[in-house]
Specification:
Excises uracil residues from the DNA which can arise as a result of misincorporation of dUMP residues by DNA polymerase or due to deamination of cytosine. By secondary structure, the protein is of the alpha+beta class. The chain contains 7 helices and 34 strands.
């Protein structure tokens, strides 16, 4: 498997913890303020009053809830706990305000608050939903060196004598009944209960695995060269964060299978979300989104290329990383019920034929944003006549340049349509002409392969780097292609064309100005290439 860094999120103020809203899959952060984000990770609402300097956030499931909850608890630096609602984006109430100094505090998924009261050195558990409280008296030999954690409603108490590295780890049920008592020689940096296994990470990069039911250690593994600061897991993998900002992935036998450095500072939290996404928080308050990709390149890429009918010449281009990024992008569009163009089966239509057969490449900007119009090929429309309303300004000027290139006469569109009608100017109708171009070796490639319906330029940011790499790849694979770059949008890709001839002039959608040497109708795109391509259709 592989980890792919998708993007960074840098909150406007210091972030100490985060959660993902289970109902909307959106980000919520706490720290110097409570902040709600939209699906594009833009801040949409924030609070500072009452809950500035918050340290932790935890979603809870209230009694009798069958589905995911919108309720979460925030713990402040004063160890006050506030109940909030992510649906209404409101702070509901302060549900816990300590009267004594708190040494350590944690909140469970079912709304229980467990803490160490410094005045009594008692372990206390408050059920905020049932309004009950339990206390357990602790030994005072550990002085103030207590830490509490909660996993699956089990309470874990870590205690350490002053100036000693050895730890005592006790595990309790939700009723504070002790079920395990473990003595560890070295200090434990991070502790997590996974099933009956207690995993404890060390300063030297080791992890110890204990059987919580017998209080015995049965395995240990060296995971990192640096201190392990956090541990997360899913059904298949374990994810370790370390003090150098690295994420290390192991299998269930703790064999390292992947590693990625995402931050300069240590990793403070990792959170696995379904659909193979991992969120990471740094000590500096930066958040990274990482994609988890199956390492079986043949299976992943092969399935992707077969599904989209992509020619095998592109096998080296479509790595598992690119495939995963594209699939997640399209999946997100569908999850958010976004209508986009073209239809899925036409997104990679330009790549269905061999690179080696290509003689000319026309770079377009993006698919038509109107519904059911784009075919996946740049400029192409499926209409049987040049005189229909579907023939837009760009296509009309393309028709004018074709006419001028072959007849040396400059006419307006109506005159050309009359010549087509009488048979004086023989050119295939649009629905056949573009197919003829492709059959002769013309690559009709847009530099953004999708667009949201009714929203031009909406997907350019996503496709930009992918298409730059694609153009590089094509120009290396086949150095004999002539590239027709019409307008500034396509000409910005010129530097990524590493071989071949380039012909540049204005875009056909621009207003015609024949006094401008770069005007579209002054262009030599068709004249310079008509020896290899019959632009009017049919065999050359």
């Amino acid at each position: 498997m592989k980890l792919i860094l998708k993007q960074y999120i840098t909150p406007s103020l210091k972030t100490r913890d985060f959660e993902i809203n289970p109902l909307t899959n959106t980000l919520i952060t706490v720290g110097d303020k409570l902040t709600f984000y939209n699906k594009e990770y833009k801040e949409i609402k924030s609070f500072k009053r009452k809950i500035n300097n918050s340290d932790n956030i935890r979603y809870i499931k209230e009694e009798n809830q069958l589905f995911a909850s919108s309720t979460f608890y925030i713990t402040t630096s004063k160890n006050e706990v506030y109940k909030c609602d992510s649906s209404t984006k409101k702070i509901i109430d302060c549900i816990f305000k300590p009267t004594n100094t708190i040494l350590s505090i944690a909140v469970s998924p079912l709304g229980k608050i467990v803490y160490i009261d410094s005045s009594s050195s008692n372990l206390c558990l408050i059920d905020t939903l049932n309004k009950t409280k339990k206390e357990l008296e602790l030994d005072d030999i550990y002085s103030n060196n207590y830490s509490v954690y909660i996993y699956n409603e089990n309470v874990i108490l870590k205690s350490r004598k002053t100036d000693e590295n050895s730890n005592n780890i006790r595990i309790f049920t939700a009723d504070l009944e002790e079920i395990s008592n473990i003595s560890s020689k070295d200090n434990n940096i991070f502790i997590k209960l996974v099933g009956i296994n207690l995993l404890m990470t060390k300063l030297d990069g080791y992890v110890e695995i204990w059987d919580a039911s017998t209080s015995e250690i049965y395995d240990y593994s060296h995971i990192s060269e640096y201190k392990i600061t956090y541990l997360e897991n899913d059904d298949e993998w374990f994810y370790f964060g370390n003090s150098m900002g690295e994420i290390i992935v192991t299998n269930d036998r703790f064999k390292v299978v992947s590693k990625i450095k995402v931050f300069k500072s240590e990793i403070k939290k990792l959170l696995y979300i379904e659909e193979d996404t991992l969120y990471a928080l740094s000590e500096d308050g930066e958040i990274a989104i990482i994609l988890i990709v199956d390492d079986d390149n043949t299976s992943v890429v092969g399935k992707f290329m077969k599904m989209y009918n992509i020619h095998h010449d592109y096998t080296e281009f479509f790595t598992t990383e690119k495939v995963s990024i594209i699939e997640n992008f399209l999946k997100k569009l569908n999850m958010n019920k976004k209508s986009y163009s073209p239809h899925d089966n036409n997104i990679f239509k330009a790549l269905e034929t061999s690179i080696m057969d290509k003689k000319v490449c026309i770079l377009g900007k993006e698919p038509y944003p109107q519904p059911n119009l784009s075919t996946g090929l740049a400029f192409e429309i499926k209409t049987k006549s040049w005189g229909t309303k579907l023939v837009n300004k760009s296509l009309k000027n393309i028709l004018r340049l074709l006419y001028y290139s072959y007849t040396k006469e400059l006419k307006d569109v109506n005159e050309i349509l009359a010549d087509i009608e009488t048979g004086k100017f023989k050119i295939l109708p649009p629905d056949k002409l573009f197919k003829s171009w492709v059959d002769q070796g013309v690559l009709l490639l847009n530099t953004a392969l999708t667009v949201e319906v009714g929203l031009p330029s909406s997907h350019h940011k996503f496709w930009d780097d992918i298409c730059k790499d694609l153009i590089k790849y094509i120009s290396i694979k086949n150095p004999n292609i002539t590239y027709l770059l019409w307008g500034k949008d396509s000409q910005q890709f010129e530097k990524y064309i590493l071989s071949g001839k380039k012909i540049m002039h204005n875009h056909p959608s621009n207003n015609i100005n024949l006094e401008n040497p770069n005007d579209f109708l002054n262009g030599k795109s068709f004249v310079s290439t008509m020896s290899t391509i019959n632009w009017l259709g049919g065999e050359n």
